[in-house]
Write a structure and sequence with these properties.
This protein is α/β, with parallel strands linked by helices and 328 residues long. The chain has helices at 16-36, 60-72, 101-104, 106-111, 123-132, 179-184, 195-205, 241-250, 269-281, 290-293, 317-325; strands spanning 47-51, 78-82, 93-94, 117-119, 137-141, 153-159, 188-192, 213-220, 231-236, 254-260, 285-289, 305-307, 309-313. The chain folds into two domains: 47-218 and 312-325, P-loop containing nucleotide triphosphate hydrolases (Rossmann fold, 3-Layer(aba) Sandwich); 231-307.
Length: 328
Amino acid sequence: MRAPQFWWRRPTRPGLWPRLLAPLGWLYAAGTARRLRQPGLRPAVPVICLGNLVAGGAGKTPTVIALVERLVARGLTVHIVSRGYGGRLAGPVQVTPRHTATEVGDEPVLLSAFAPVWVARDRAAGVRAAQAAGAQVILLDDGLQNPAVVPSLALVVVDAAKGFGNGRCIPAGPLREPVPVGLKRADLVLTIGDAAAQAGFDAIWGAAVTLPRLHGVLEPLQMGMDWQDQRVLAFAGIADPARFFASLRAEGADVVRGEALSDHEPLSETLLRRLEAEAAAADAQLVTTEKDAARLPPAWRSRVLTLVVRLKIKDWAPLDAAIDRLGL
């Protein structure tokens, strides 16, 4: 019997499956805690870790881009260290224009347009490589539950609409570790979402978050494309494809259908040809996310439009103050 979708239910009235799976969640949390007790590298340069407490996406990639731009504006040399999820190279290797998403993962390919990126399954080795290459500050992508490196500053990124789900650990809920435990190792929290999502997060989780907090929203980047009444067939292999489809509709696009793929799913020629044929039959244009576009084969990049979004932070003051304390 397959368990129903329960991960994003609110924590007020747990359903049957979360209660039955709770003991496994306790074991998962204990395993995470045991792993985090291992000693980690203390780098010679500041390391800012970006992570989340839930499995799946929360908006870390746009956050990395926004932080790179903020730090570069201070005149700093910023490098990024990523595990390279979905790529076959173990590293440490610096991403170049010759690398493909199959080799290093889609997120490193995307991020390499903004700063030097090192892919390393061994995060400590990646940090050492970035440090040796002249990084003045290193952004450690999705490293909150990885003990290999001791960060100078840790930022927890949260999808405000989803919050921390039902407050339970995998598999009883979406959490990688209990909320109080994860936040105890963090310095700041960034919640991403519109005003309604932020208010919903405050109502349910506001009391649990006592750290300095930033509020952000993802907004389409204006690139001269008029989406109004544009018929599109959208596809997305990200953590929350529905959010991407909703963003297109908010821009005025006529989404004839949205194809939700699994996160980081390879974009095969067979899949793309099927989608192209369906789009042609519906007199629609194929469109995808910026991260998915990084996985497109070269021959398809001119045939698929991309909706680019960027993170807008309401008030940078809490993060700026934390960066100042690092002496940057």
